[in-house]
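Researcher: Quick one. two chains, 839 residues in total.
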Amino acid sequence: MLFSGATFLYAFLPIVLLLYACAPGVKAKNYVLLLASLVFYFFGEPVYVLLLIFSSVSDWLHSIYIEKHRGEKKAKIALISSIVINLGMLGFFKYTDFLIGTVNSILGTAIPKTGVPLPIGISFFTFQTMSYTIDVYRGRAHAQKDLSTMATFVCLFPQLIAGPIVRYVDVAAELEERHHSLEDVALGIRRFAFGLGKKVMIANIMGEFTQVFRDSSDKSVLFFWVYAIAYSLQIYFDFSGYSDMAIGLGRIFGFKFPENFNYPYISKSITEFWRRWHMTLGGWFRDYVYIPLGGNRTTKLKWLRNIAIVWILTGAWHGAEWNFVLWGVLFGVLLIIEKLWLGKILDKLPGVFRHIYVLFVVVLSFVIFNAQGLSGVVSDIGGLFGAGGIPLVSAAAVYNLRSYGVAIILAVIGATPLPKWLYGKLHEGAKVALEPLATAALLIVCTALIINGSFNPFLYFRF
Amino acid sequence: MTKLLKVKYWLTIGVFVLVIFGLSVTAMFLPDKDVSESERRELTKMPDVVEYSVFDREFSEELESYNLDQFPGRELFRTVNSVFRLYGIGQMDANGLWIKNGTVFKTETSTNLDQIHYAARYYTSLIDTYLKDCNVYFSVIPDKNYFAAEENGYPHLDYDEIYRIMTEELTAAQYIDIRDTLEIGKYYRTDTHWRQPELFDTVARLGEAMGIRDALTPADAYTPHTLTPFKGVYMYQAALPIRADDLTYLTSAYTDSAKVRWVDTKTFKIVENGDGVYTPDRFAGTDGYEVFLGGTQPLIFIENEDAKTDKELYIFRDSFGSSLTPLFTGAYKKITVIDMRYITSAFLGTMVDFTPGSDVLIINSTLTLNSASNMR
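Model:
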């Protein structure tokens, strides 16, 4: 079920809100959320809902065992067991066919692929459950004794399938006791509506452009560049829109989920970009991979190794294809270069050049990200620079630029803090009328776009 | 919390509840519709749970289709979508349609040259098989974009190539160029087709080339009959507040006296249709253009004892031919109207006897030629 689908918005959500409002006390509300979350996941992945339940039970048992044997070797064994199970699930469902394909292409073998479909959101919920067990082992969190509460955390539908990656410690207190205020509900609704708008009114329209580009036989250098920009905007508004919806829903239900994006396209270095892009994933790798490996408090060589490991894993986390690994490696290399010497040079450059540098790298990186395998990387990156003898400009490029130009410009402006800054300048009295009106307008226009059956995938569902 | 903030929060919650719960409740009580007139398709029905296994993912997909199709105020939301795209974010088209001076056009982005070559080969083969002893003519009807797309910066078919391929490769028939007899005002504003009362120049051009110009019924011998409002296929697809067209069909003594037989779609037998060349009762249906020759018909025989000649005409046509054909009724004793998209060429000989020495007019629109493989 998609947040931007009619079934979610006009059937699932109102029923859940109604049941949630009627449920007395946190415990009952948690039951409502758990049941709703299982139904939510069941609608998208009927079979794999069992996997989700297994994951919840497994980490619940492991964490209780770890807490019981804290400080003993048994706790460590239980932790390793939990990690092996989580990574085993992720590895089996996400990477088995990738590995078989790679072996086949290298050795010329014909090992048949499993063809097992990827459970939606597995990368997110396995990371959440792993962080929980690790935190219990480290003593940063108490093991949750109540299975239903634990399952509510793992399955919580607002953030279940596309993040943000919520750690147990972020919501542990709220799972036990939370308050629902007028302000939280209203701001949650506002956040949800704006997220929906980002997804449906911007990301989907950018997605239409990228689809038109892919389908066109009239490619040109201009078309490639506009595609690259449109896709960079699509992925940002798609993912950050989803995060906004998740955070907004969380707030309606009394949870405060961590922020996931902070205007990444205004960054002046790649290091800064990754502090602003998918912040919960970056934080996860920092706390559970980079720092345990020694972080930067080690020899230079090991430090560089640590960065390399994190970025290869980050790339692979995004998808079981070599272009994702390459994408991660690209950022790893750039971060290393920035940390070693480029950062100092960048600091001396005027801001505009630093912005251009970041945007150029990021746009190129997303072309790699969205390519069909490594051969797709070569042809798409080549297309940006006129490889294959394509013309500079084509009729299709001009037409589609005219057709999508306003949307692209609006999306570029929307990716900066400018709209928020302008809104902040408004008198509070104006906001009283404007905010409810904007919320209503967003819901109606988004519904219209959804009803019309426009392009509506969520890019991050496949991760 | 200030009073102003409180008001703002309550209003935000209020509009959310109104929209989400209001539409949900409306959807719950609104009876389901069978068809969407605007999109000319059946709407998805509520999936029956018992038809799906517990772990069947298709159920949720069907449910989403159902919710989208049966959404309350669906037409209004489709209009909001089109207005947002065209006027909100300045897109060149919405749902693949664009509007200029109140006329709706459909964007045609890719010319399938393979299909054009196929059409030329297909008709060449048909002529070799059935029409060797006939006088075969062909013409190509330009679609509306021919007259407006380029000057307005919209993509369109590669007309030069289409006409070049057809004239160079379909040499077994004599080409009749009708392009200069047409202009954008001769087409419906809301539909893909041309207006019958505007076709006299075109019919004269065709008649001249086919040697029957003097036998054609003059314009002043026709009586116009206007049906309104005619909401063409583009009007529905565009989902925009556009003024509807009028549909006018022309009758004469010859169209009135013509006997029409066609294939009964239930029994697949040739039957007399009873209505003649016009079927005005179909105007109220999903496609008002079906007034002309009953709309989609694979094979029609029009006989007219009062015709000015004893000649026979075979028209290989698409839907444009439906409104063109009645204007030939006075000039031919028998007209056989064939739409090869619905008849396999291998069986054509079993259904139609081609009289040697007859006239044959192959006339298709550029749109039909661009998907010519529909003709088999």
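Chain B has two domains: 3-99, 105-374.
Researcher: Thanks, that's what I needed.
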